[in-house]
Amino acid sequence: MEQEGGLIERARAGDVDAFGTLVERHQPAVVGFLMTACRDASLAEDCAQQAFIKAFQAMVRFKGQSSFRAWVSRIALNEARAHWRWRKLRGWLSLGGGSDEDGVAEESLRTKAGPQGELEALERKLELERAMSGLGRREREIAAMRLEGFQLDEIAQTLGISQGTVKSTLFEATRKMKERLL
Amino acid sequence: MNHIDEAGCRKALEELAAAWPQAVLSPVLSARLDSCPACRAEKASFLALCAKSSSWSSALPAAHWRDLARKTKQALPARRAPRPLVWAPAAAFAAAALAVLFNYRVPDVDVKRPDRAQMLPPREVLENQDLLEHLELLTEWDGVKAVERGSL
To answer: What is the ipTM of this complex?
Structure first.
């Protein structure tokens, strides 16, 4: 398995195959955390794809000050936030309309799951999802990244905050989830 | 005061929360939490939460991720390898052109200015200034008289 540094160097030189390997490695985590953060699987996949395309175009500007995954995640989160702002504005302009986001998310997740498989795991995931619905936006983003295996420093880099803030936010998030789940 | 607000407990519980969802605790942290009954209870509920979070990433089938990665790779635009400094000669040329442009001065043109004497009224007018003013007064006087006569 090729080292990440080598793949990044090749991708910076315009190697599509090397970048494709980076996509295969990191897309599940980026989509996964966006899916949890924005509760819309299709939106998460679209935003993640856009983020990878933008990242590829801007590879020469990637200096390696953060991890590649944190860098792409930050781009993806900006994409998603722009979409949320637009959706909020659209909802405000049409005087609400009150969509049930959780319902949409659950339906979306069920559609994405394979027919044969993992329905039990999906149910557990949805249970945790419901517990996370009581979290604030920042708490939810951090919890979602943590669930996808992001390290504390990666989360701090993605969100542009300190590791101390990540820890204290996680503390509040886990406390709220325990109240709902246990 | 809530025990969580106590400095040592708060810090230990933040470290505990940072271990979510893998629940990998260092022996030092684990011993610290076990030393306080309230922290021990927090640790137990935390481990229960971690157990419920353990199957998180297996919800979508691997084939779905492969398909998604393939679609993303297909959407990547063709991008040539960067060619650094390819713009340098063009930039140097532009800088030189600007330097020439800004240092260029319009050459002095010998503009013939009119003689001050030519700009004054003719000499006859200047010499008879008093007479002209007198005539002007007379004209005005005639106007006044005309008004008095009612002819204007």
So the answer is: 0.80
